[in-house]
Fold:
Amino acid sequence: MASYVESYYRDTRRITLNGTAPLAGQRKVDVAIVGGGVTGCSAALHLAERGYDVVLLEAERIGWGASGRSGGQILTGFGTELGVLAKSLGCEGAGRAWEMSREAVRLTADLVQRHEISCDLKWGVIEAALKPRHLSAFRSTIQEMRESYSYEGYQWLDREALYERVRSRAYLGGIYDPYSGHLHPLNYTLGLARAAQMAGATIYEDSAVQKLDSGRPARLTTSGGAIEADFVVLAGNAYLGGDVAPQLRGKLMPVGNYIIATEPLSEDQVAQTLPCDDAVSDANFVLDYFHLSADRRMLYGGHVSYGRKAPRRLRQRMVGKLEKLFPALAGIDIDYQWGGLVGVTFNRAPHFGRLGDNVYFSQGYSGHGMALAGLSGKLMAEAIAGQAERFDLYTRLSHRNFPGGDRLRTPLLVLATNFYRMRDLL
Ligand SMILES: Cc1cc2nc3c(=O)[nH]c(=O)nc-3n(C[C@H](O)[C@H](O)[C@H](O)COP(=O)(O)OP(=O)(O)OC[C@H]3O[C@@H](n4cnc5c(N)ncnc54)[C@H](O)[C@@H]3O)c2cc1C
Structure:
């Protein structure tokens, strides 16, 4: 039986699923879902609630991918600016996509409440400026959101107001978003899976799909059996690999991202770091993000890598940055370190679509998927049930392949990221 990556989340897992043995034999269903992260579990739940006969096939365990490893920030918006979405959708379409990103956050809260998922959901996220140019960009964002999208939710924090909430002198100011939040991502994902099971979906873990034969029905093969399905949902995201759907490979770059978890902080250390329990990220291209866990550990994320190998001296580098940010944490013990793959698209807008007319996919939330993945599962359920307008808004976003083909796309992306990393230093 596959097990979870060693992480703080694995050791604080509160939800256990029953009846998730690997697929053995043949089955015919309405919908087969590939992947048991937030996208797949949400799709399973919403389809089962609509009365479809649903199976979900997970290669490892539910939440084993990015969903069970993430920073847990539940964010409005996207991994890119709305202007990028407006290029494909126009201003009105980008506005609708933005409203749906707000719906994604509300949906998360609703699912947590409705299915009694114990996952420490809290509200309040800050985006913090490290450079004067970040401050100007924030001012423009707040103004643009007011004027073009009638959104008044972002609150400006000047340097002192920010310092009241985030006790680091590194930041010059920021945006406070009371409508975004943070949660324990593995417990949230497992809670969705449990709700899907209760609604009637069947979950098979340790059941990697090796082959997808399209057609009606489509046929999915694992080492233990096969499923015939009228519809397929591909929810493998950065972990899907190239064999199941080679058509999707060029549009998505799996990028490694890493988190450390400190020992629990004392009251005094909490007061000297995050007294208001917000989640924070900075405005760099390769950004750092952090918040406190329910037992008051600092979960601090950042650093990227291309390929599955962690960067050299990762822990020392991350601890060095953390201690510089919060001198009160000098010498603190690090109890956990882990990483996972983020699915990033070239323009950092999410990638939704169909292969043929009965295979649906959504991927590439570009670091912004914890809320959006939940909504995408719901939108795919709507589309399969015949109401595709909302899903199709996102399918209108145009996406290009990463340049360089299979051999050169990773080195080219490393070059590009190094350029932005250098810019972050200026
Ligand atoms: C370290 C890290 C920090 C992050 N922080 C944040 C954050 O703070 N906020 C935010 O919004 N986003 C964050 N993200 C991104 C976020 O986690 C993802 O966008 C989101 O979880 C994607 O969910 P998913 O269900 O689409 O994919 P995943 O959760 O990756 O699930 C895909 C699943 O598919 C399975 N699978 C793949 N191929 C097959 C196959 N052939 N057969 C069967 N199963 C298969 C995998 O095993 C995996 O479990 C972070 C990601 C990482 C790695």
